[in-house]
What does this fold into?
Amino acid sequence: MGTCNVSTGIDCNTSEEMCPIFVGDTIPFIFTFTQDDGTPLQTGGMELEFTMKLNEDDANDDPNTLYKKVVFPPPVEPATGIENMTLTSEDTSILISGRKYYYKFKLTNPMEGVPDEVFTLGYGQILVK
It folds into this structure.
């Protein structure tokens, strides 16, 4: 895989951390995936996971963890490399205001007969307000 650019539609100029989010907000993410040569990556059937955890080693089913998984629709031709994931108001309502969370985006390409390809697309901390 080449590169992945992520846009939230929220104007924020931070370096290491994502922009703060608010409990109950709806957050749309738009991903643009490209191959090494810059052409769009065929993402059909791939899985994208997003987690926000109070402690990095918390389980995905911890009551204070936000866990979201989407499976991209079957491949289309020509490939666009553009995919979406939206955190709903219900998703973000479990977060605790005033706390920093550890976040991670992980892309998995399920492979038949061989181990899956797994790519960590981004990680860091995010403040919840």
User: Anything to note?
Assistant: Residues 3-127 form a domain with the Immunoglobulin-like fold (CATH 2.60.40). The helical segments are 89-92.
